[in-house]
Amino acid sequence: MDFKKFRKIISNNKKNKDLVNRKLKEFYNEANMENEDDLLDIMQISRAVISKNGYLLAEIPFKDIEIGAICFSGDGSKYVLLNSSLPRVNVNFSLCHEIYHILYQYHSFKESAELYMNENYYDHEEEMIANHFASCLMMPESKFIKMFNKFEQESEESKSEIQTIVKLMNYFTAPYMAVLIRCYELELLKDGGSLKKLLNTTGEQISAEFDMLWLNTELLKGSKNDDFEKLLALVNKKGEYLVSRELMRKTELERIKNNMRKLYQEIRG
């Protein structure tokens, strides 16, 4: 990411801080949580919230690693499909990004399928707010500042910034760029010569730091989780119930399942 775009994101996040904080409070209420300290497993909590809003959540290993998530609607059902080919930190961020769109997007989805591109920081206002919401949901301000100070004190002086960032990645299971942006928007790191270096840190360098610090390197890998069969079984169970109540024809249920299989093949390849 270039410096100009980075500064624009920081400025935008500061401008929208109050709006995002209001949406976070709404999410905690939706999830029956008192505060951010209750959010220990984002996938588990989000599945229940998304389900209440009519969506089914599933992980599928996409063939295209440029795509982070797909929001899809069709045949009377709505799905959030996460790309498990991506590192776990990116999957978590994609999920939190989509939560904003599902719950709080001002304009409803215009297409039957909406894509969230992995590691893409758009210039579009609503996408930037969704990314900001995702970061704040994953990395609550007070806890983030506390852990930043702790990890900064523990890090080697010559590598304090990069080591602090990767430790925060590990602790909050969040992507590198999201952590870096959070550090600067909260003014925990100052603009200087090191920012350019941090903006150009490679995946190999991040992985090496994880390994050296004995952090969880599995967070940097794709889990390849495939929930399709469970998703298909759930749709079939609901469909069979509707068929038994004569609210759906058996042929319609089979058509829906065939469409799901076709979509799955297109996504997975």
UniProtKB/TrEMBL annotation:
UniProt-listed Pfam families: Peptidase_M78 (PF06114)
Protein name stated in the entry = ImmA/IrrE family metallo-endopeptidase
Q: Which organism is it from?
A: Acidilutibacter cellobiosedens
IrrE N-terminal-like domain location = 57-183
